[in-house]
Amino acid sequence: MEVKILLSTYNGERFLKEFLESLSNQTYKDWALVVRDDGSRDSTLKIVEEFASSYFYRGKVSLLRDDGGTLGPCRSFLTLLQRAKGDYFFFADQDDVWLPNKIEKLLSRMIELEERYGRKTPMILHSDAVVVDQNLREIATSLWLYERLDPNRKTLNYILVQNNITGCCMVVNRALKTLLKEIPHRAVMHDWWLGLVASALGLIEYYPERLVLYRQHSGQNTGAKGYRVSVLLRRAFDWKGLIHSLERSLWQAREFLRIYGPYLSNEQHKLLHTFINLPKESFYSKLALVSKYRFYKSGLLKNLGFMVVLLLLREVADGSECLHCSV
């Protein structure tokens, strides 16, 4: 049984050693780390190489060197998954800290799921996390509560609208990895893309424990935003950002349909076509179709924002300017 940990790094010298230390402290020891650096200009690579050459981890760490250049986190992580060999694949963020039993608990549960549904069933298993600041002081006891994410919403109609899977909290099996047919250009983020694949062609399950310290700090490309009133108000009036966010989810859905269309059921085709073409519908048709197919986000305010932007949007740009977006 091969367990691979996939780590995409970029200028991560500040917190990378803490992550690697948490990896060293895992109760499950039979893992291998595969690292792809996305063009760091600091000492990130040196830190990785020192860790790889240490006595205890010699032979357990490999560096994926390619000519891909700076891909951004989404395509860098998916490149790692496509190139890695193994049975189970964990995704690691360079600035987080894993609790000691993370691998052991998720791996044990994933094996149970495969025994129930079969190893050929593509699967994602993901956990909750504790949100912490740069000094690992607790901000929120639960990432799911902090972001108002509902892990029970795991069918395709929900995942099209909102990602509720956090990459550093998930493990995927080999059956899901084999479905990565190509590296998409218009995927918003790797965890969201894999969530679409699993929701349509396999299954998504969640583990109801917090197994990661999810660090928030300045300089992050992604991260938890929280559900404070000030944050929600700032989002609510960022019309350009809200429109762009919806457009990107529509571009992503188009590319998903292009790549996986031959594997989808008639009902899934209809669902995707309906979602992709929502901006072209009339005011009342949009309301009716959102209700019929339950294109809902988690939380009243998020749904209100989504509906207002959708009702205002009449057409969607082709997204060519976002071919290499990283966030």
From TrEMBL:
Keyword Transferase carried by entry: yes
GO molecular function ontology, one term from the record: transferase activity
Top-rank lineage group of the source organism: Bacteria
This protein's record includes keyword Transferase: yes
Entry keyword set: Transferase
Domain Glycosyltransferase 2-like span(s) in chain numbering: 5-114
Listed name of the protein: Glycosyltransferase family 2 protein
Organism encoding this protein: Caldimicrobium thiodismutans
